[in-house]
């Protein structure tokens, strides 16, 4: 080691014998491979700190060390309670213990020779190691290469890193350690993206992840960027909460979603039943709907409905509801004869459905939420359902525009509408497996809708209260309530 600042042995030994501060070393790593610079970082509450590097198994107190090669002391630079100190290793290899003044606990670090590291990098460039061999190799060599792989702290993430090292071995053969570092940075971005998608709960979060990580994770979003907001929401809803084992699995899903994303109809039509929105009526208006015609009720073979929507073959249980609500402009298609039955329902979309289905007229005074633009197509519908007590904001100032509707919130909204229109609920059902997971404010609505047979649990007896409601599910439940009101 090259010594920049040296202290006499007696002073050094005294510092190491007593724990007099809370200083701790948190990391030792090669920060400059070409110049053999090792940087030590940590935390301290002191104004001054020194860091000592000692050849492992060297006895300082006995004075048996070689002051030129076995020990070096550097004064640390301290900023906001964090310190760093740098050491230059010339030809020294092996294990070293690093100490910060006032703390006798060593931080061990192995300095591997440049020759050995360059040989390893050369082997990486020829894809010599298998995917199962690489994790241990990378863990051993990268600290002495100045390559950060701290993110690869699970078996899955390390597997992604190993796979990328093999995939891009030609880059390593051409560019050496800088390529190894670049591949590690790319993999870090990839796993952060995948973690983010798995935990995402709104389409806005997914969109931000896609745009933020496209460059560092090196995937193409040019086609996605050309989609309108409707198409982007379709893609983001499908990716939200999904877990992908690696980037290849994500891209295999992402590409078809983008290419198959629909566009918002050029001229959306959102008429209201029974006079429209904005006429000024009292809270608690009644449903004004004609009964189904024979042609509407005779749809079990799908012939009538498939003339209108060509993508609902997977939801035969919702055909009648979709056709009926479509006939009455409660819920519309998305263009190109598509309905998108599995797409998630947004809060503003539900507001429109409820306002039209239950003839909710508003005062025309606006929605009164900071996240609802005055000129947005949904503003009158949101204002109407708010005035009628069917939907509230997520807080005093925000409606939750663009957020998916949970299944329990769908139940609450429809339950309120039914009660406003005189429906008397008498039966409750609470024996769902996950009933205790339902929020307290929604338990009454869920239990009564279930008791009346308007909703039912999934096949395993769960209601999945926090899952997002789909367009088909919403159509089915809304239709069930509306027809129950007509027949009461």
List key phrases describing it.
alpha+beta, 18 helices, four-stranded antiparallel beta sheet, single chain, 488 residues
Strand arrangement in the largest pleated sheet: 1-2-6-5
Oligomer status? single chain
* Secondary structure tally, helices: 18
Major sheet details:
4 strands, antiparallel
Distance between the termini: 90 Å
The low-pLDDT segments are 2-20, 60-68, 265-303
Return the string of H and E elements: HEEEEEEEEHHHHHHHHHHHHHHHHH
Say how many strands there are.
8
Helix content: 25-40%
- CA radius of gyration is 32 Å
- Gross morphology: elongated
Q: Output mean pLDDT.
A: 82
Write the layout of secondary structure elements.
Blueprint: H1 9-17, E1 24-32, E2 37-43, E3 50-55, E4 71-75, E5 77-79, E6 82-88, E7 94-100, E8 107-111, H2 114-125, H3 134-145, H4 155-167, H5 169-175, H6 177-199, H7 203-213, H8 222-225, H9 229-239, H10 247-259, H11 294-297, H12 303-306, H13 319-327, H14 347-357, H15 379-387, H16 407-420, H17 440-451, H18 471-486
Antiparallel strand pairs: 1-2, 2-6, 3-4, 3-7, 5-6, 7-8
Helix pairs in contact: 2-5, 4-6, 5-6, 6-7, 7-9, 9-10, 13-18, 14-15, 16-17, 16-18
What does this structure look like?
The chain has 488 residues and is an alpha+beta fold. The protein is built from 18 helices and eight strands. It has a four-stranded antiparallel β-sheet with strand order 1-2-6-5. A four-stranded antiparallel β-sheet has the order 4-3-7-8, with no helix packed on it. Helix 16 (407-420) crosses helix 17. The longest helix is centred in the middle third of the chain and has 23 residues, at 177-199. The protein is elongated. Residues 2-20, 60-68 and 265-303 have low confidence and may be disordered.
